[in-house]
Amino acid sequence: MRPQPAPRVPLRRIGPSAAGEPVARVRLPVPARRALAAQVRQLARACRERWRVMRETSSGAPPILPDGAHPNELDLRRIGRSLDLRRRYRYVTPRVHPAQGGYRIESPCCSRNVASDGATIDIAWLQYDGAAGHWRLHRRDHLLGTWVLEGLLDTLQGALEVLNDDPARVFWP
What we know:
The chain folds into two domains: 10-61; 73-165, no CATH class. 28% of the residues lie in helices and 22% in strands. It has three helices and five strands; from the N terminus they run ααβββββα.
């Protein structure tokens, strides 16, 4: 005699708009279930590997990035989000571009002090020095057309705070 399967309990939605009505059960075909199971296993392996790397590098000290680790997509987006918190010229949209060993920030010139037509000008250049473990923050000297080192900072966050505050208007002319 065949054993009786356990009774099926209908799934119910949880939430203010669902009001507890039953959800339709959909049984996927076997090939689709196998493909889905393979994807889940692959994601689980990737997550385990990430956790292993995080455990091995979680000594409390920041990870030492190898030469060539910058620019990267994560910090590019981090800088872009941080620029939304700046104090000057909040009505223009600066852009962050990958540059040699770091990131270059440009913005439309809204004060018309540098470009009278409001053209896009260079604002700052952030460069990571992997050997020394600090960030170099450069400003653009628009008269000479060169980059001037403004400071050496321990963290990217510290460099972004200096850039966003800018009380002397050296970055945002």
